[in-house]
Design goal:
The complex is a heterodimer of chains A (about 375) and B (about 500).
Chain A (H helix, E strand, L loop, with lengths): L2 H7 L7 H9 L7 H9 L3 H24 L7 H43 L6 H17 L2 H13 L27 H15 L5 H4 L10 H25 L2 H5 L4 H8 L8 H8 L1 H23 L3 H18 L3 H40 L8
Helix pairs in contact in A: 2-7, 2-10, 2-14, 3-8, 4-8, 4-10, 4-16, 5-14, 5-15, 5-16, 6-14, 6-15, 7-14, 8-16, 12-13, 14-15
Chain B lengths: L4 H4 L2 H9 L4 E7 L5 E7 L5 H14 L5 H7 L6 E3 L2 H9 L2 E5 L7 E5 L28 H11 L5 E8 L5 E8 L5 H12 L9 H8 L11 E3 L2 H8 L4 E5 L5 E4 L17 H30 L7 H11 L6 H21 L2 H21 L5 H14 L5 H39 L1 E2 L2 E2 L56
Helix pairs in contact in B: 2-5, 6-9, 10-14, 10-15, 12-13, 12-14, 12-15
The chains are: A mainly alpha (about 375), B alpha+beta (about 500).
């Protein structure tokens, strides 16, 4: 088989960007984000969900402009190299990789923590983490096609869980979201909090070159993000209808508690089933993060991805088992979220403006050709 | 032994070697006017009637001076002169008789009087259907090809023969429709078969294991079937069939995982019924794999999961059981596996008895003795029953097997363990390929076109396109435009 063939085998069609974006955004955050945004903006926080969703559409658009500059899709490492030179550029890329590694650690550790709180108080972290990371490594070892497949199935298979949102409506009090008010100060604070639930889509910056016809994928990226927004909106509204404000303040994982309401003839405590199935939702998060880190390291160090994959998996494992206490995990979540917020709301627009200016500047000098690498 | 020793043997060496066997006959035959012929053949491979009628009699009646004369004298097709050891060895072993004038001559005439012993074409046993044709492939390659050609009387039906196996010299036929099948698929298939290095090929299952994309996977990646109608139908979808000498099963490739759960009878009954049965079968498979592990997980870790009323029933049935659920489950599952193995190895009549003794007597006794709970007995029996619904035997084996790791994981981490192993299998299935084509298609990669004949089967009139999986040379079965248009109410299309 020629090199050409192998390359096209690992490419996926633009349609899957929908799932790659969506699956990376939904993770463990959905268990408890409602409480935090309600703290910021009260029961008007559902407006925040829509608002943040719209803002992020703009960011996705910017990201595409940065990466698709010059027609051929590039990843952020190439962009960094082109605009910041080898040393500073690579340094920025490394920063991204560390961020993605910690994103993976956060998701994995938080998921295991939730399992420990809700299902198995005595569960030892490392064997589960090890098994989990082995699955992830095995998947990535077989290429990006498999990573995409997991993202796809991680959205499609657990999708039925959205029906569980219906049952709490039996006890809904629809007046709770009234009066609808828009207070700018509250909303701004809530947008910052809400952004944390949307982070993850920026992995686009790494896998875009693996999409066949990357230009066509933009609409799917927006659609994927749109679905995320709708899901968060649905969860937020159901939560607000169900819980009173005082009640919500005392519930750490409102979404999980909502599952308790669900009654099936053969299943009493649905959250056990739901949490186990949530593994499929968490899996794409980690598999994409690890893929991004291993792929990025391969490019930066010019080695084989097999080696960087094992290194990444090993690091992920060690860091995951290093966080043991509630405070440590909470801090980890906060730090990664904050960094994520700054990356997508400050760094991406800044990079967008910078590249736009430089491009304008350069194309004035050389009339017909775009910037060359 | 040397790999290509048959090439190195000389004419005389071959004969010397053959003479060591007692069924190798060297005969002198007196022809007219004192001419003598020396005949050598394996009596076990030659049919005595044509041997007498078409070889002995003509030679006796006629005097021959040269090999050419003998050739003309014999009323048989494919009579040829032979002078190389390799040709001779092949000929003798295929039931040909060597005719020479002198005992020591390193050349002669080979005439084929092969004895063909065949099993009659019989009813398919593994893939029995109530409706539809009742013929199954047999061990004879020519008969099998005949069955296929009868079903597809078109000159585009292409048969490519490859001989593999250093000792068995098994003839393998790769069959496809030239104007439909994808050239790359055919190329890959032939290459993979030619690359097989082994001494003896007993069955297509051997070939199957050699050419599978991932031979370490418990999931079969190529369908093997004994139904000529299935093969014919799949050939028209651009698939490739592999037949081999001495094997009543035919390999079909490329294939998808969903296809292993579709019985061929699905095409003989109306589409809604067929779709419903297919869904039931898929549900049965899921049930078969997950029910016992769920029982173990729930009873070991998540008793809260069960509603109060149901819990009472469960506790009642388990109250006198001295073992933990995992022990109980493995005990019962193993019993079922034992019964199945015993049943499969025994003659049909005895097998039935074993089934009754094992299933009813042991099961009831185990419950009465308080070794297992009757709820679990119901679950395990149902799961075993469900695993028999798979139309292709090989995937049934897989389902039997993967239940055990799930049981262990359920014991280890409860429901979390089941979903961990489940996602591992999911990753594994995504990585699998069948003849280089994705195994999980049409689910991933998502191809809407192929959903028409996957979990459900839409009516034939809607299946005007050929599946995307095989990447066929022509896109359509029939033109959509020519298909019947729907008339409006009270109107008729003329």
């Amino acid at each position: 088989m020629s090199v050409q063939n192998i390359k096209s085998m690992s490419h996926v069609s633009p349609f899957y960007v929908f799932f790659l974006v969506h699956s990376m955004q939904i993770g463990v955050g959905i268990f408890g984000f409602q409480r935090y945004i309600a703290m910021d903006a009260g029961y008007n926080a559902w407006i925040t969900v829509i608002l943040t969703g719209l803002l992020i559409h703009i960011l996705i658009w910017m990201l595409y402009r940065i990466l698709l500059d010059g027609g051929k899709p590039r990843d952020i490492i190439d962009v960094h190299r082109q605009y910041f030179g080898k040393y500073i550029g690579n340094l920025l890329s490394w920063a991204f990789l560390v961020y993605f590694l910690f994103m993976g650690i956060t998701v994995l550790r938080t998921y295991i923590e939730v399992i420990q709180i809700w299902m198995f108080p005595t569960l030892i972290t490392w064997p589960v983490a090890l098994f989990f990371i082995l699955i992830v490594t095995y998947g990535i070892f077989n290429g990006f096609r498999v990573v995409t497949g997991i993202a796809f199935l991680g959205v499609v298979l657990p999708f039925g869980l959205i029906l569980t949102l219906i049952s709490p409506l039996e006890f809904a009090n629809y007046d709770r979201i009234l009066p609808v008010e828009f207070i700018l100060g509250e909303q701004t604070a809530a947008v910052k909090t809400m952004t944390l639930s949307f982070i993850g889509f920026e992995s686009l910056a790494f896998y875009l070159p693996f999409i066949n016809g990357a230009q066509k994928s933009q609409k799917w990226a927006h659609a994927g993000h749109g679905l995320t927004t709708l899901m968060y909106l649905a969860v937020t509204l159901v939560t607000f209808f169900y819980y009173s404000r005082l009640h919500l303040e005392r519930v750490i994982y409102p979404s999980l508690s909502l599952w308790k309401v669900l009654e099936l003839p053969v299943i009493e405590r649905f959250e056990y089933v739901g949490l186990s199935m949530w593994l499929l939702v968490v899996m794409p998060n980690i598999i994409i993060s690890v893929w991004v880190v291993s792929r990025g390291m391969k490019k930066l160090l010019r080695t084989k991805q097999r080696h960087t994959l094992f290194f990444t998996a090993g690091t992920l494992f060690l860091f995951t088992i290093a966080f043991e206490t509630r405070e440590a995990i909470d801090n980890l979540n906060n730090h990664v979220s904050t960094v994520g917020f700054y990356i997508i709301f400050c760094y991406v627009p800044a990079l967008f403006i910078l590249t736009a200016i430089i491009r304008r500047f350069r194309s004035d000098g050389k009339k017909n050709s775009g910037p060359s690498v | 032994m040397k790999k290509n020793r048959e090439h190195s043997r000389s004419f005389e060496e071959v004969l010397t070697l053959c003479r060591e066997s007692d069924d190798f006959i060297n005969e002198e035959l007196l022809g007219k006017e004192n001419s003598i012929y020396y005949l050598s053949y394996f009596s076990s491979l030659c049919d005595s009637t044509p041997l007498n009628e078409f070889v002995f009699n003509p030679l006796k009646k006629k005097q021959c001076y040269s090999l050419e004369d003998i050739k003309e004298a014999l009323p048989l097709k494919g009579v040829k002169a032979v002078s190389s050891g390799k040709e001779l060895e092949e000929g003798l072993n295929q039931g040909q008789v060597l005719i020479r004038f002198e005992q020591g001559e390193p050349y002669g005439i080979l005439a084929s009087v092969r004895l063909n012993e065949n099993r009659q074409i019989s009813i398919p046993e593994m893939e029995y259907t109530v409706i539809g044709p009742k013929e199954a492939f047999v061990e004879n390659l020519d008969v099998n090809l005949n069955l296929l050609r009868n079903r597809l009387p078109t000159s585009s039906l292409c048969v490519k023969k490859v001989t593999i196996g250093t000792i068995s010299r098994t003839e393998v036929a790769v069959v496809y429709l030239k104007d439909i099948a994808n050239k790359d698929n055919v190329q890959t298939m032939i290459q993979r078969i030619e690359a097989i290095e082994y001494d003896e090929i007993s069955d297509t299952s051997y070939i199957n294991q050699f050419i599978e994309d991932n031979s370490n996977s418990p999931f079969p990646q190529l369908i093997d079937t004994e139904r000529p109608d299935r093969v014919a139908a799949q050939l028209t979808e651009g698939k490739i069939a592999v037949l081999s000498k001495g094997s009543p099963s035919v390999i079909l490739a490329p294939t998808t995982m969903v296809e292993f759960f579709s019985a061929f009878e699905d095409y003989y009954i109306p589409w809604h019924l067929a779709s419903a049965f297919r869904l039931i079968r898929l549900f049965a498979v899921l049930f078969s794999v997950f029910s016992t592990p769920m029982y173990v997980a729930v009873l070991t870790y998540h008793a809260e999961l069960i509603p109060q009323d149901l819990l009472a029933t469960l506790i009642m049935s388990r109250s006198i059981i001295p073992f933990p659920p995992i022990f109980e489950a493995i005990f019962l599952e193993l019993t079922i596996e034992l019964l199945r193995e015993a049943g499969a190895r025994l003659p049909t009549k005895v097998g039935q008895t074993i089934g009754i003794v094992g299933g009813i007597v042991i099961g009831t006794a185990a419950v009465e003795a308080g070794l297992t709970s009757n709820v679990l007995l119901i679950i395990v029996a149902l799961a075993a029953l469900a695993s028999f619904t798979t139309p292709i035997y090989r995937i049934g084996n897989t389902i039997r097997l993967i239940r055990f790791p799930f049981l262990l994981m359920a014991q280890l981490w409860g429901l979390l363990g089941i979903s961990l192993l489940g996602s591992f299998l999911l990753v594994h299935i995504i990585t699998l390929k069948s003849l280089g084509r994705p195994y999980l298609e049409p689910v991933y990669p998502f191809r809407f076109r192929d959903f028409k004949d996957a979990f459900i089967r839409v009516p034939f009139s809607k299946q005007y396109e050929l599946p995307e999986l095989t990447q066929t040379a022509k896109p359509e079965r029939f033109s959509k435009k020519k298909a019947k248009k729907h008339a409006d109410i009270d109107e008729h299309i003329r």
